[in-house]
């Protein structure tokens, strides 16, 4: 069975990585779907996020990385996907995730959302907090795959150079 793990992944963290690895043990194929919409700009472009995730899972043929625009259920219908995977950290994610799962079910009855509890080590990890810590010079070694750290370094250097160019 094919499942999709949708999200912003700006950038992918060890929390996401853990959910994807565990999902691979349950499903035949896992599509990591990078959601993008033109109004919400992130640190990395959607294409960069896709490339980074591909690098992280290089050699794992159970994983496909793709991006989609607009409603997740439209992509799900198009690709005939039956399962949406979402990760749950503590209680803070619950209300939003519950609402999304019910709404997706209402929009397309043929899909089930499956929740996976975060592993203890990654309960507190989010893309936002990783970016914040890194930009302030903190160590993110245990929070993201090494490749992500390299890309974050490059990205911040690019931003800094651009800013200096403007001065
Ligand atoms: P979104 O913008 O859709 O919330 P994210 O990239 O932030 O996208 O997250 C994608 C999914 O992964 C969400 O279901 C989120 O709750 C889950 N997730 C994010 N970080 C973790 C983590 N550390 N442990 C478990 N699940 C996580």
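^ Assign residues to that structure.
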């Amino acid at each position: 069975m094919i499942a999709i793990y949708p999200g912003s992944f700006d950038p992918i963290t060890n929390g996401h990585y853990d959910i994807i690895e565990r999902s691979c043990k349950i499903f035949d194929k896992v599509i990591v779907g990078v959601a993008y919409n033109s109004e919400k700009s992130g640190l990395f472009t959607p294409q960069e996020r896709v490339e980074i995730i591909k690098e992280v899972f290089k050699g794992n043929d159970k994983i496909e990385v793709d991006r989609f625009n607009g409603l997740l259920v439209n992509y799900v219908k198009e690709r005939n996907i039956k399962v949406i995977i979402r990760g749950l950290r503590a209680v803070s994610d619950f209300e939003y995730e519950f609402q999304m799962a019910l709404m997706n079910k209402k929009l397309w009855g043929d899909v089930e959302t499956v929740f996976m509890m975060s592993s203890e080590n990654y309960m507190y990890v989010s893309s936002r907090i990783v970016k914040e810590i890194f930009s302030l010079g903190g160590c993110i070694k245990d929070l993201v795959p090494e490749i992500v750290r390299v890309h974050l370094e490059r990205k911040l250097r690019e931003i800094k150079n651009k800013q200096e160019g403007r001065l």
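The pocket of adenosine-5'-diphosphate is lined by residues 7-9, 13, 15-16, 19, 86-87, 89, 93, 118, 122, 125-127 (CB under 6 Å).
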